[in-house]
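Q: Cystathionine gamma-synthase, please. Structure only.
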Amino acid sequence: MHAVRGYEEKDPAIVRQLTNGYPRFVLHPFTRRLVAHLTTVTPALRQRTLWLTSSGAMAQALLAHLTPARGAELYTLPGLHGVSHPESPETAALAKVFLQNLGGFLSSREAEDHLVALQLLPAPHPEEVFAGDAPAEIRRQLRTVLPGTTDADLLLASCGMSAMHAAFRAVNSLQAPRGRTVWLQLGWLYLDTIAILKKFTAHPADYVYVREVADLDALRRIFAAHGARIAGVVTEVPTNPLIQTPDLPAIAALCREHGARLLVDPSMSSVFSLDVLPHADLVVSSLTKYTASEGDLTAGLVAVNPAAPAAAALRSALAGTAEPLYARDAARLAWQIGQTPAVLARIQAATPSVVAFLEKHPAVKAVFWALQSGSRENYLKLARTPDATGGMITFTLRNPGGLEKFYDRLRLPKGPSFGMKTTLICPFMYLAHYDLVTTPAGLAELAASRLDPDLLRLCVGTEPVDEIIRALSEALA
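A: Structure for Cystathionine gamma-synthase:
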């Protein structure tokens, strides 16, 4: 926990030991090396900070975000795009958060290819990849769980947040001209999804947070009062991190009655475990989770429901909006995605045993998972099979000061991602919302959403379940 706090507070003693990390938060070593080379050999980049982006369009968006007043300028080379600005911690922070929120950083494999071309690396790292048309193979695998979709309905993106931003922009482009600018966030969602809704709605009042996912009456009242102005509803199924499942069919009916678009993110359990497409206008998912189970790439998906009232308009609006999935990332994902059902089967076979252990342990206060009471029935309406739970579990401890002792003693891999073959655990609120867990106002905001600042997020991997339980038991003793 000392290291977690040090990372969040940018303690040099901690940060300098962090050689790599989740790629929307930590620049990959290949990217850092490429930037260092370019700034060294380019006189115009001296005393400037360079950000390399996933596309020319993302570079333009970053430039507009920073504004020329900050001295920001486009940077281009053949096949390479970015933005530079005079050295400034404030401007650098603005750029980094913008690229984090939208998933706009250069792919590590693309950076590696540039390093090879510059003869700074001898060759790309050897790895198993799909030899044929990788995007076609990814879409073929996805159609097994998204039947009725065509290639035009399945938009691949560089990461889940790029997919979410593309979906938001597409719906906005159709709804705003009709005077529909209000967006409803149903439940507490992942931090960058919240950031997109807060930052890119037209006015602060157009962002509406509906705390209780099960409160259909509250949703009906909002629609009754503002239905003609509501552009869309965004929710996760289940939510992150309380793993609550709303009554999706009822919400879908409400949205269609009032002409709002429903965006559903099933990343916590995966599109391979949940059948949400019939109820959504757009399914937005991070393929980083479960499908890229080796934990070595990011990817995202926007799927158009071909039966949705605005399907044709959404297809058109989405075209070319997401940040592209780099070719080598696609080739690697196409090699991994076929393993998804088998990986999920192993994870989902182990998850109930871990839940049962935690629920019975006297040191554990509360356990949240897909089949928890209160939303179990809603989840099972969508689950492809009764045991298709995904691997996510969150829990809290009875001892108010017990987090530090437990986390420091725990011999499980620790990290902020999930849906890997490797079990991962993290003190989620500290990593995702450190500003909230360290201020009185933030703690009050968490309490209003029934979120314990010491909540732990555990995603079960494919290791033997008795090893996972043994490690938890040892740390809880």
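A: Brief note, in case it's useful. The CA atoms of residues 149 and 306 lie 6 Å apart.
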